[in-house]
C-alpha cells in the first residue's frame, strides 16, 4: 500500500517535471500561431489575467502564458498545441472556483475567456447563445429587453463555470439545475477537435457528462440554452423578502428550513438561508439571513403565502423587508456582487452536523468571516431536470425507491440537496450534502 502510494507519487513528480520543462515551448508555439495579442506571458494584460481569480490562492499562481481566445478556433489551436507539448494547462471563465488550482496553473498555459463574452437571444428558436466569459449580471441585463433570462447564478460576478457544476439559481425550483437548460454545447476536446454535443447526437454521452459533471470532459466554447420567460423589468411578478435574524433565532430558522425542505412542493417559491459569522479580534458575531422570493403571476396572491413562509415570518428578526411586486431582474440584483473577491479562501468537503455550533468552528482558526448557506432542492426541481432529459447529478433512480422521479416508479417526496459554503477572508468551505427524506 505504502509502496504503491510512493510509486504513484514518483510518477506524479516526474510528470510534473516534464510539464514544467515543456511549458515555455508550448507558449512560444502558441504565440507563433495566435499572435502576441492573444498569447501573453508578461505585461499589463498578462498581469490582469493572471491575478483575476476570485480566490486569492488562485490569483497568486503565475501561468507561463495566458491565451485569450476570441473564437472557438483559437481554443482548438490552444488545445492541439497543449496536447502536442504535453503542457500543464487550466481554464478560467469567471474565476469564481474556490478550489485551489482549478482555474489557474503555475507555469502552465491559462486559457482565459475574458474576450469571449457574447450573448444573444433568438426568438424564433427560443434559444439563448452564450460564450463562456460572460458573467450572470451581464447576461441577465443583456437579455432583459427580450423578457428572457438564463437559469444562472444568484450573484452577478459569477460566470458560466457554474453551469458545468450543475448550478443553483433563483429559477431552479421551477426550471431545474442551470445545466438542465442546456440545448447544445460546442466543445473543444483535449486534442483540439471541435464537436457540437446534444442530447441525441453521437456526443450525447459528453452532453450528459457536462450537465453537472464538471469541467473534466472538454472545453465549452458556446452554450445554447433554453431560456426562462421571466418578463422585462416592467413586468413585476414576484414578491421579495429579505430577513435578518439575531443569533438567538438561529435554531428556529434551522428548524424552519428543515420543515420547508420536507413540506414545500411549490415551484414558485425559492429560498436561500445563510448563517453568517463576522469575526473581529476574536469576537464572533453570528447572524442569520433569509432571502425568499415568490412568483405570483399564476396566483391571486399579493402577500407571501403563509403555508410556505409563515414559519420564517413569525421568527423574531432584526429586520424584515418585503418588497412587492418586483421584476426578475430586481431579484437577480438582490445579492451584492463582488463578495470577497481577492480574499484567501479555503475549500473543503466534509460534513458538519447541523447541531454543531458554527461559531466554535469559525472562531478557532483566526478567520474573519464565514458563510454557511443552505439551498433546498425540492422534487419539482428534480422533475424539471428529468423533463429535460436528466443530468449527471440527480440521484440515480435505480438506487432508491424514494426518488421523486415518476418515470422510475419512485415514491413522491422531496430529495433535498443542501449546498452550503463557508466563505471567509480566511477560509472557504463548500459542502454539498444530499439528504433524503419524506419517504411515504
Ligand atoms: C461569491 C460566489 C457566489 C456563488 N453563487 C453561486 C450560486 O448562486 N449558485 C451556484 O450554483 N453556485 C454558486 N457559486 C459557485 C460557482 O458556481 C462555482 O464557483 C463556479 O465554478 C464558478 O464559475 P466561474 O466561471 O465563475 O469560475 P471559474 O473558476 O472560471 O470556473 C470554474 C471551473 O470550471 C472550469 N471551466 C470554466 N469554464 C469552462 C469551460 N468553458 N469549459 C470547461 N471548463 C470550464 C474552470 O476550469 C474551473 O475548474 C458561487 C461561488 C462564489 C464564489
Ligand atoms: C461576438 O460579437 C462580436 C461583436 O458583435 C462579433 O464581431 C463576433 O463575431 C462575435 N463572435 C461570435 C463567435 O459570434
Ligand atoms: C480527437 O479525439 C476525438 C475523440 O477521441 C477523435 O474522434 C478525433 O479523431 C481526434 N482528432 C484528432 C485530430 O486526432
Ligand atoms: C448562537 O446561537 C447558538 C445556538 O442557539 C448558541 O449555541 C451560540 O452560543 C450562540 N453564539 C453566540 C456567539 O451567541
Ligand atoms: C428545533 O427542533 C428540535 C428538534 O425537533 C427541537 O428539539 C427544538 O426545540 C427546536 N428548536 C426551536 C427553537 O424551535
Ligand atoms: C411564474 O408562474 C407562472 C404561472 O405558473 C409561470 O407561467 C411562469 O413561467 C413563472 N415564471 C417563472 C420565471 O418561472
Ligand atoms: C383568481 O381570482 C379569480 C376571481 O376570484 C378567479 O376566478 C381565478 O380562478 C383566480 N385565479 C387563480 C390562479 O387562483
Ligand atoms: C433593513 O433592511 C433595509 C433593506 O435592506 C435597509 O435599508 C434598512 O437600513 C435595514 N434596517 C435596519 C434597522 O437594519
Automatic annotation (TrEMBL):
It comes from the Eukaryota. InterPro entries: FAD-bd_PCMH, FAD-bd_PCMH-like_sf, FAD-bd_PCMH_sub2, FAD-linked_Oxidoreductase, Oxid_FAD_bind_N. Keywords: FAD, Flavoprotein, Membrane, Oxidoreductase, Signal, Transmembrane, Transmembrane helix. GO terms for molecular function: FAD binding; oxidoreductase activity. Residues 1-20 form the signal peptide. PROSITE patterns: FAD_PCMH. Residues 59-230 form the FAD-binding PCMH-type domain. SUPFAM superfamilies: FAD-binding/transporter-associated domain-like (SSF56176). The chain crosses the membrane at residues 416-436. Belongs to the oxygen-dependent FAD-linked oxidoreductase family. This is FAD-binding PCMH-type domain-containing protein. It comes from Rhodocollybia butyracea.
